[in-house]
Design a protein that fits this description.
It is a single chain. The protein is α+β, with helices and mostly antiparallel strands. It is 19% helix and 27% strand. It has helices at 53-56, 67-76, 172-175, 198-204, 206-223, 248-255; strands at residues 2-3, 44-45, 87-96, 102-110, 113-120, 125-133, 137-146, 158-164, 185-190, 234-237, 240-241, 263-264, 267-268. Strands 3, 4, 5, 6, 7, 8, 9, 10 and 11 form a 9-stranded mixed β-sheet that branches. A two-stranded antiparallel sheet has the order 1-2. It has a two-stranded antiparallel sheet with strand order 12-13. Strand 5 (113-120) and strand 6 (125-133) form a beta hairpin. It is globular, with a radius of gyration of 29 Å. The relative contact order is 0.17.
C-alpha cells in the first residue's frame, strides 16, 4: 500500500501523476513564520502482512489457550466409571457425515467407549456427546473417499470409518435425511489445521488415532465381550463411499467451514 501526501498546489503546465515522484523544489522562507510545506511529497511504501497457516490458527477457537483442556474437563463430568472407564486419549478431528458435511469434533477413547463430542468452543459449552461401546464396534475401514460415478461432489484425502452393531449401511430414510443421527457408522479425517503447528500435530494425527482405536477395540472385545455375538474387529483398507450426488449443501458448508468454531469477520460461529 502506498501513502501520498496532500499537495497544496500543482506545478504549472498540468503535470501528470508521475510528477509527484520528482525531487521537491526549494521553498523560499516566509518572512512571517516557518517555511511553507513542500508542494510535492515522495511516496513511501507501507509494510503488508501475508497470512500464514500458523497465523490462521487464531481464527479457530479450539486453539485458544486452555480451550481443549476446559472441554475435556466438562466431558469427563458425563463419564461413568462402570460404562466408560478411564480416558485413554483425546483427539481433535473432523467428522464427515453421510451427506459429506465436515464438522469439528473432540473424540475421546476410554477403556470401554468411544465418545464423539460436539463442543462449542465459542461459548465453551458441550452441546452433544455420542457414546459408542467399543465392544459393539465390528469393522474399522481406512482408505480414500469415494463417490458415485455421476456425483458432482468430491473430497480428497484419507479417512477412518467406524461401524458397529453389524450394520454396513444406513436405512433408506436415514440415508436421505441429512440430519439423521441413526447412521450406524462414523467417519473421520484430519482437522484442516493439523499440520499448522507442531504443538497441535499430536492432537490431530489420524494415523495415531487409528492405531490407538484398533488397540482399544481389541482390548474391549477381549475383556468385555457382548453375549451372543462373535467377538473381534475387522480392519479393512478400502475406499470410503459417500453417497451424495449434487452436494450443494455440503459444498456451502465445507467451503465456509460452517462446521468449525471460528472467527468470521466481526462474527464468530
Amino acid at each position: 500500500m502506498l501513502a501520498l501526501g496532500d499537495a497544496e498546489g500543482s506545478p504549472p503546465g498540468g503535470c501528470g501523476p508521475a510528477a509527484v515522484l520528482g525531487v521537491a523544489a526549494p521553498v523560499p522562507l516566509s518572512p512571517r513564520g516557518p517555511p511553507a510545506p513542500p508542494a510535492r511529497q515522495s511516496l513511501r511504501p507501507l509494510p503488508v502482512r501475508t497470512a500464514t497457516r500458523r497465523g490462521r490458527l487464531r481464527d479457530f477457537f479450539v486453539f485458544r489457550p486452555g480451550a481443549v483442556e476446559q472441554a475435556v474437563g466438562e466431558i469427563r463430568a458425563v463419564l461413568t466409571p462402570a460404562e466408560d472407564g478411564e480416558v485413554q486419549s483425546v483427539w481433535l478431528l473432523a467428522e464427515i457425515d453421510h451427506w459429506n458435511n465436515e464438522k469439528e469434533r473432540l473424540v475421546l477413547i476410554t477403556d470401554r467407549s468411544l465418545l464423539i463430542c460436539k463442543y462449542d468452543f465459542i461459548s465453551l459449552q458441550c452441546q452433544h456427546v455420542t457414546r459408542i461401546s467399543l465392544s459393539a464396534v465390528d469393522t474399522i475401514s481406512v482408505g480414500e473417499f469415494e463417490f458415485p460415478p455421476k456425483s458432482l461432489n468430491k473430497r480428497e484425502g484419507i479417512g477412518v470409518r467406524i461401524q458397529w452393531d453389524k450394520q454396513s449401511c444406513a436405512s433408506f430414510i436415514s440415508r436421505w435425511n441429512p440430519w439423521s443421527t441413526s447412521v450406524p457408522y462414523a467417519t473421520f479425517t484430519e482437522h484442516p489445521m493439523a499440520d499448522a503447528d507442531e504443538k497441535i500435530t499430536s492432537l490431530c494425527l489420524l494415523e495415531n488415532f487409528k492405531t490407538q482405536l484398533i488397540q482399544a477395540v481389541k482390548k474391549a472385545h477381549k475383556e468385555c465381550p457382548l453375549p451372543g455375538r462373535a467377538n473381534g474387529v475387522l480392519v479393512l483398507e478400502r475406499p470410503l463411499l459417500i453417497e451424495t450426488y449434487l452436494g450443494l449443501m455440503s459444498f456451502i458448508n465445507n467451503e465456509a467451514k460452517l462446521g468449525y468454531s471460528m472467527t468470521r469477520g466481526k462474527i464468530g460461529f
